[in-house]
Write a structure and sequence with these properties.
By secondary structure, this protein is α/β, with parallel strands linked by helices. Helix content is 34%, strand content 25%. The protein contains six helices and six strands. It has a six-stranded mixed β-sheet with strand order 2-3-1-4-5-6, with helices on both faces. It is globular, with a radius of gyration of 16 Å.
Length: 182
């Protein structure tokens, strides 16, 4: 008996960035619509799935939430294989979290190829403590040849849906065009 899938596409999305930038919060806000105040740091990798629709397509997103601590970095090259897109998150209140962008993107490109990467400034609900301007985020996105930039708040939900729609659209464009038109 042949099983018919209930979705048109499955995409693997990497959630990347330093520890405590909000990767798990963003993932959980997107999946459940809620915000948990006291999350534990991700140890290694956590995996989540969400079914969504984009235009007329039914899509399964596999979200791989990668622990941002340096001691887990050696695992990243294995988990990047087969990825279709990635979010790189930085905390707008902590400059160091954006400074590590070139290291993360190099690993992604070496292991997953030229997949769409969206730079995400997180924690915009803490704007009064901002250390990285929106313009600096945009410039970093351009400097490292990333596909898009967005700022989000997992706490209040601002731009969360938009971020995932943005990356989904980039992935669909990347993988649905005939190879001779890319």
């Amino acid at each position: 008996m042949k099983r018919i899938s209930n979705y048109d596409f499955t995409y693997k999305i990497m959630m990347l960035g330093d520890a405590s930038v909000g990767k798990t919060s963003l993932t959980l806000r997107y999946i459940s619509g809620s915000f948990l105040e006291d999350l534990k740091l991700t140890i290694g990798v956590d995996f989540y799935s969400k079914y969504t629709k984009f235009e007329d397509k039914r899509i399964k997103l596999q979200l791989w939430d990668f622990g941002g601590e340096e001691r887990f970095r050696f695992l990243l090259s294995q988990y990047c294989k087969g990825a279709n897109g990635a979010f790189f998150l930085y905390d707008i209140t902590n400059q160091v979290t954006l400074d590590h962008l070139p290291d993360w993107t190099q690993i992604i490109r070496d292991q997953a190829g030229d997949i769409p990467i969206v730079l995400v400034g997180s924690k915009i609900d803490l704007d009064e403590f901002r250390a990285i301007s929106r313009e600096d985020g945009i410039q970093a996105s351009k400097k490292y040849n990333l596909d898009a930039f967005i700022e989000v708040s997992s706490k209040n939900g601002q731009n969360v849906e938009e971020a995932f729609k943005l990356l989904t659209e980039l992935i669909l464009t990347e993988y649905s065009l005939p190879s001779d038109t890319k």
